[in-house]
Amino acid sequence: MRLNTNISAYIAYENYNTTSNLYQKSLERLSSGLRINSASDDPSGLAIADNLRTQANSVKQSIENANSAIALTQIADKAMNEQSNIIDIIKSKLIQARTATTSDDGREAIRKDIVKYIEQLDNIASQTNYNGISLLQQGSNDNALSNELSFQIGESASDIIKLNGVRSNSTGLNLTALKNLGEGALTADVAATNMSVLDESLNTLNSFRSDFGSTQNQLESSIRYMMTMETNLRASESTIRDVDYAKEVMNLNRLKIAMEAGMYAIAQANRIQDMMIKYLFR
Fold first, then answer.
1. Which residue ranges does the record assign to the Flagellin C-terminal domain (predicted)?
2. Are residues 199 and 253 in the same domain?
3. I need a labelling partner for 278 at 20 to 30 A (CA). Which of 15, 93, 196, 246 fits?
4. What is the mean pLDDT of residues 139-160?
5. What is the number of structural domains in the chain?
6. In the chain, what percentage of residues exceed pLDDT 70?
7. DSSP track, 231-250
8. What pLDDT does residue 3 have?
9. pTM of the entire structure?
10. Beta carbons of 269 and 5 less than 8 angstroms apart
């Protein structure tokens, strides 16, 4: 036996210290709700969980992008719907101007109405925008073809949904000649000629609306898919990063008992030294 160094006490303390550190870790997990609180807890698990979180956040932003893009397409569609109503009205007026029961004065009044309606159609084209982005023509003061729009819907740079440019104004819909009719220029024959022009204009406008509608459907489908994807990614991250409370509470109780046993072992190791001294010097 040796009195100078209490080996039993050192061993008991070492085991107690290890158990105490594990107990502190368990408390940290229960208080934070996370199984991984630092890289040392699970280096590979942390890397995987962080990648999953980044991917989930990217998908979440893509969903927000898609919702914004849907709002854009809806604004454009409503604007073109009103333009479609205008074309319907103009054709009705041309039919009225074509019949023999309409006088020359009546046709002149109809011409003025038609010009005003086409001007309004152009106003809609110049004013329709989303966050300053012109949707139906190049710009508020530029009636050229609008820019092609690219929506980032996904994690990588290649995950793009595109929307073709349109020119939904009097120039793009071939209504310039009708808009520029001078005083007295609207005759029955002119009205008859432009009725077919209006049909073509409506077909062109409907093709623009169809493109916006198809893009909206594509965006909505992407949102449904990405919402499911985000949920699965969050669940996968949670499995790796979050603590299982039932399991951890059980582990905490086990460590608590081990700590109490360790404290008892230290006390007993010190008691052996005391007993030895008492025996030797009684």
1. 196-280
2. no
3. 15
4. 93
5. 2
6. 94
7. HHHHHHHHHHHB--HHHHHH
8. 56
9. 0.80
10. no
